[in-house]
Amino acid sequence: MAAVAAPFDRDLEADFARIERLITEARAGGVRLLALPEACLGGYLSSLDGPAEAPPALDLDGPEIRRLAALAGDLVVTAGYCERAGSGRFNSAVCVTGDGVLGTHRKVHQPLGEGASYGAGDGFAAFDTPVGRIGMMICYDKAFPESARALALDGAEIIVCMSAWPGSRTNQTANLAHDRWKRRFDLFDRARALENQVVWLSANQSGTFGSLRLVGSAKVVDPGGEVLADTGVGAGMAVAELDVARTLEDARRAMGHLRDRRPDTYRVPDLSMAG
């Protein structure tokens, strides 16, 4: 399996050319599951300060997604795009093989000014694929433990998080490797894998786009929270090989975080009664 860090922009033809090269490289390396970043078809927003130039809106059943599926062929490929649904737009992800669409997700949690450009999704659901049961989320979704937990409880063995995660906008460092938002990105990846004991793929955009410096840092994390492969802040492909079923069995044999939950004790206070 592999997670990609790479730049993408408004030039769809250039984006598809890059995706084709990445799929060719992955296939040559024996990869069966390839995670591409958020908004890799058409690029992300150029700014998070409010309404911004939006990527081209694509239909789930349109020619671009069919083209992506044709490129995927025998691979399972996840990718982010701007989805057109009626008069609305969503920051969405799709999972495809050459046979077509296997699963979809609309980003639920919207940071800063993103809500001015996209509608919000309303849930998380896992789905079956030739490489195992997968759950998807997008970028800021991973800052909320409930997102990954909902997918794990729905049977996700592998969670793919696709991002266009930037570096900090204040107190910027010249070296993105030392950026505080980059550290948060990495912490979320490891924590979500460990607390749910799942295999975690984190794909992210790299380079710059508009006012954003993207932190790259694509990685594969095992159910113990250990990073098996990482691109660092530059472009690249993080590749790891593991038997998912056996890895999950080993991780959950003694300490089963999902098995040992006590939902009856997790009471949420009714804040409407406060004061």
From TrEMBL:
A single Gene Ontology MF term assigned here is: hydrolase activity, acting on carbon-nitrogen (but not peptide) bonds, in linear amides
Taxonomically, the superkingdom here is: Bacteria
Coiled coil regions in record: none
Residues forming the CN hydrolase domain are 1-244
| InterPro entries cross-referenced by the UniProt entry | Aliph_Amidase/BUP, C-N_Hydrolase, C-N_Hydrolase_sf
Check the record and name the PANTHER family matching this protein: BETA-UREIDOPROPIONASE, NITRILASE C965.09-RELATED
The protein's name in its UniProt record: Apolipoprotein N-acyltransferase
What organism does this protein naturally occur in?
A: Planosporangium mesophilum
